[in-house]
């Protein structure tokens, strides 16, 4: 079975659903001795199977697949009000608003079946924990399991469940917060403090994530007890990243001066560059992932087609100013050269 502590370069490229994660990006990080990841979120099981096949054609190194754990059904009445509010956005972009589908579980059962029939070295989870049965089944086919946690209580629950490692996500992370309770406020405990607290309660290896963008950032969390780091935003502008061109440009555009946590795009807290959509909808946004995400999907697609960053979810962690367009293999090597103790 895969062992996190045996990675030549203890850098994991974060799974980034919605386009940024590609087989080319995962393979590039694998070539540098890190851990490549595919993001199963929002993809059909068939599209995931194709990406796994593609990645296997590019590397023999171990890699991971990340899954969204299904959420409890949200309150439909609150979402109806937010849907009305979004009509102005639909008019602006010439898009239509779908009826939300409460049965959407992101193809969880089919994706688990796929990973049992055709196992991969590492499977990670976000937004909650899988059942003990899923853990036993995936262990049975030899996969190494990583649970994303944002608090000590979540870490303890994951430890009791028997996963192999924890991805400890701090408040500076780009994209969605992996809180197990979808309505919980994402914690504010700084990553290094969180690592210390989690490390005091579990002996599982920890992968630190959130706002890490430089060699110094990486060195600091390794000193704080992490065995590896997971970086997302740092890779968004690489040529291998499938992030939308408007997203890549916005990360380097001085007009975008800060990141904020918002539920406006998906009904779940996520960190992104502050833009017009957030300014107009953050205050009135409601809980309700994944239904709110379904509602804004055509709006975001239309904004992307019109190359308008102000209608897009520009996910980014607080270290976004350091994101470069360096190829991902070199970037991984450069980050590790700058971080490693003997450097
Ligand atoms: C664009 C984007 C998409 C993301 N998608 C996922 C995902 O599909 N699954 C997941 O577990 N984490 C996802 N994350 C969160 C990352 O796993 C990680 O916690 C985060 O990128 C770390 O913070 P950083 O972006 O500051 O490096 C995403 C992050 C970003 C920026």
User: What is the distance, rounded to the nearest whole angstrom, between the alpha carbons of the first and last residues?
Assistant: 30 Å
Q: What name is given to the CATH topology of the largest domain? A: TIM Barrel
Helical percent range?
25-40%
- Strand order within the widest beta sheet: 1-9-8-6-5-4-3-2
Quickly give the CATH architecture of the largest domain.
Alpha-Beta Barrel
Shape: globular
Please report the first level of CATH classification, the CATH class of the largest domain.
Alpha Beta
What count of structural domains? Answer: 2
Write out the CATH superfamily name of the largest domain: Aldolase class I
The small molecules bound here are: flavin mononucleotide
> Got a strand count?
11
The sequence of SSEs as H and E is: EHEHEHHHEHEHEEHEHEHEEHHH
Low-pLDDT runs of 5+ residues are: none
| Rg from alpha-carbon coordinates | 19 Å
For the sheet with most strands, the description reads:
8 strands, parallel
Task: Describe the fold and architecture.
The chain folds into two domains: 4-70 and 106-241 and 321-339, TIM Barrel (Alpha-Beta Barrel), CATH 3.20.20; 75-104 and 257-313, no CATH class. With 343 residues, it is an alpha/beta fold. β2, α2 (45-58) and β3 (63-68) form a beta-alpha-beta unit. α1 (23-31) packs parallel to α2 and α9 (215-223) packs across α13. It contains 13 helices and eleven strands. An eight-stranded parallel beta sheet has the order 1-9-8-6-5-4-3-2. Flavin mononucleotide binds at residues 14-17, 20, 39, 41, 66, 126, 148, 169, 172-175, 178, 209-212, 230-234, 315, 317, 319.
């Amino acid at each position: 079975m895969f062992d996190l502590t045996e990675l030549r370069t203890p850098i994991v490229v974060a799974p980034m659903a919605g386009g940024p994660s590609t087989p080319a990006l995962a393979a590039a990080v694998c070539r540098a001795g890190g851990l490549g990841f595919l993001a199963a979120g929002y993809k059909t099981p068939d599209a995931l199977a194709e990406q796994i096949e593609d990645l296997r054609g590019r590397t023999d190194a171990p890699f991971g697949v990340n899954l969204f754990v299904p959420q409890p059904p949200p309150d439909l009445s609150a979402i109806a009000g937010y849907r009305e509010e979004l009509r102005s956005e639909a008019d602006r972009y010439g898009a239509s608003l779908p009826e939300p589908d409460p049965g959407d579980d992101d193809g969880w059962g089919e994706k688990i079946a796929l990973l049992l029939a055709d196992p991969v070295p590492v499977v990670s989870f976000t937004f909650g924990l899988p059942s003990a049965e899923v853990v036993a089944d995936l262990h049975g086919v030899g996969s190494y399991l990583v649970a994303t946690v944002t608090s000590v209580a979540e870490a303890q629950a994951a430890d009791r469940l028997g996963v192999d490692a924890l991805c400890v996500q701090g408040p500076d992370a780009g994209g969605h917060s992996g809180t197990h309770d979808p309505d919980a406020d994402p914690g504010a405990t700084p990553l290094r403090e969180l690592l210390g607290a989690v490390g005091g309660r579990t002996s599982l290896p920890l992968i630190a994530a959130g706002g890490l963008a430089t060699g110094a950032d990486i060195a600091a969390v390794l000193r704080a007890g992490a065995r590896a780091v997971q970086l997302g935003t740092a890779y968004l502008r690489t040529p291998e990243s499938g992030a939308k061109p408007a997203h890549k440009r916005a990360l380097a555009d001085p007009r975008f001066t800060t990141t904020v946590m918002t539920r406006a795009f998906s009904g779940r807290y996520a960190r992104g560059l502050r833009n017009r959509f957030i300014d107009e909808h953050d205050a009135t946004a409601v809980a309700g992932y994944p239904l709110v995400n379904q509602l804004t999907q055509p709006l975001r697609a239309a904004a992307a087609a019109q190359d308008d960053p102000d209608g897009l979810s520009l996910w980014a962690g607080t270290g976004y100013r350091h994101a470069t367009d360096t190829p991902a293999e070199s970037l991984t090597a450069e980050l590790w050269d700058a971080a490693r103790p003997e450097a």
